[in-house]
Design brief:
Radius of gyration: 17 Å
Shape: elongated
Helix content: under 10%
Structural class: mainly beta
């Protein structure tokens, strides 16, 4: 079995606020990254792949594969579902990853399709979250070249599955909470 490394990206590292109004129609940006488009676009700055993988492992390969293991989306105390129509159309999203030098060359790659969120109909209820789990890491796998620099900026976009557009909430009460992504990375000889 090939040795692996894990990459975890968590939006709370960019901003730990759980106030929906902080994210509505605004961008939060700092040295760690940015959260924009009503939490549909999350970018982590300066992810150090060498440090993540360790010198020996990183130096042993010129290419790596990456697979999404788990994606998890929380809700906020103010998050609620406005109506059934919006649930069907706005709460199934595809997740796209960009920022790596994919081979073949692609700007972004689809890492999860139909990621669904079950949201409460009353703000503050704790019934809902979205989670996609690929058992035994059998989700889509992509190959990327070792970048010229050890650090990269990694972006994950959440697009509505049936329109491929970024999700536009009707109010701050439909803003989703923090998200976490767990990736498995393997060196390729």
């Amino acid at each position: 079995m090939a040795e692996t490394r894990n990459l975890i990206l968590y939006t709370q590292w960019i901003s730990d606020s759980t106030n929906a109004a902080d994210y509505y129609n605004t961008t939060i940006s700092n040295s760690v990254g940015s959260i924009s488009n009503n939490r549909s676009t999350n970018t982590w700055n300066n992810v150090n792949l060498r440090q993540l993988m360790g010198d020996t492992y990183y130096n042993s390969y010129s290419k790596f594969s990456i697979t999404l293991g788990i994606a998890h989306q929380n809700i906020l105390n103010t998050t609620y579902l406005a109506n059934t129509y919006r649930r069907i159309n706005d709460y199934f999203v595809d997740l796209y990853l960009s920022g790596l030098q994919f081979d073949p060359s692609l700007n972004d790659v689809l890492i999860s399709s139909g990621f669904s969120m079950s949201l409460p109909v009353v703000a503050g209820q704790t019934l809902g979250y979205g989670s996609t789990i690929y058992k035994n890491h059998t989700g889509p796998t992509y190959v990327f070249n070792k970048p010229q620099q050890d650090t990269v900026n990694i972006t994950i976009n959440q697009k509505i599955t049936n329109t491929q557009q970024l999700r536009i909430p009707l109010s701050s009460n439909e803003i989703l909470g923090h998200s976490m992504y767990f990736f498995e990375i393997k060196g390729i000889l």
